[in-house]
Amino acid sequence: MNIHEYQAKELFEKFGVPSPKGIVAGTAEEAEAAAKAIGGDDLVIKAQVHAGGRGKGTFKNGFKGGVHFPKTPAEAGELASQMIGQTLVTHQTGEAGRLVNKVMIAESADIERELYLAILMDRGSASPVIVASTEGGMDIEEVAEKTPEKIIRQFVHPLAGLQPYELRKLAAALELAGDQAKQFAKLVKNLFKLFIACDCDMVEINPLVVTPAGDVLALDAKFGFDDNALYRHPEIVEMRDTTEEDPREVEASKFDLNYIGLDGNIACLVNGAGLAMATMDIIKHCGGEPANFLDVGGGATKEQVSAAFKIILSDPNVEGILVNIFGGIMQCDIIAEGILAAAAELELTIPLVVRLEGTNVALGKKLIEESDLAVISADNLNDAAQKIVEAVKTA
Ligand code: ADP
Ligand code: MG
After folding, report:
1. Is the model's pLDDT at 109 over the cut of 90?
2. Which residues take part in binding substrate (predicted)?
């Protein structure tokens, strides 16, 4: 799960990570009022979407940039009216872009240096890792590719936690000394606390800035939370903005289905993540393109199968469906009944190939073969993949 920058600021405040004051606005009037409330003539207005690269982004209406620096409240309102309700395309959103529903007005900070700071979970070392760079503000992916030596990594022992000497090492590597090093150490210490306390899998501050006055401030924030730990954080779940998520994935999560939309035309409905991966692989191997990853879970119910079909069929790119179920916990005949009921209810018109294996497989296959619906039965994974790729090609 991700949150918006204005929501991240609330977490920053709670954990003592310094960042300029910001107020969210959903209309031009609210933006103007927010600018007045913040006061002064050094303001910034920023589009709130779950994607970075806003500064260099372009709106589909031609308006350039998702980050602007108004000098007056009236100008802030004017800029807000150009952003709200418009679609912002950045290098992270893909061509479709993201609809901007809200903007944030904040104090604009004077910037002397722009640094990069992130905390992530690192699989390889099975520990958190702090990633930092003197080359903040711009495209960090480009820095990593062209000058990888400028990316600093500090692994943190998962039990011992962040140590003072590790903070000093990081500060020195970022060429921070004296009071700035102290401010930086405190900020990173608090950010690390936040990272652990909120079960984040990523926090990224780009840029982390040093002001001419010598203060260290977070000017941007990107958060990712571990979905499996969200049950511990109702206050974070409340920040969820489902309008920023793929509607098919939102629907799937209501039924405890693991769904990820992809670009292909062959939908897969599979039980078990491993089997789902194998199914996608074999579709590709046979010359097809999977339209999704969909794991209905080991004990899939009839309701889940039906919900899964509905989600699959709501995707206009889907031209065929491959069901690949291993009846271990569930019995194949019960699954076959569920598939047939869903196919009949939804008046399926595209090819459907079903491969069943496991408990009561003979019964399950018999049900499918005897039904009036145009369901193609398959004997094994390879056979199933070939049949659906063929059926989609000739359909
Ligand atoms: P994104 O990463 O999505 O492009 P940022 O929040 O990083 O958005 O903003 C882009 C740039 O705008 C930053 O690199 C920084 O130079 C500037 N900026 C952002 N917020 C502020 C602020 N509060 N004060 C001054 N400059 C800012
Ligand atoms: Mg940024």
Report:
1. yes
2. 271, 328-330
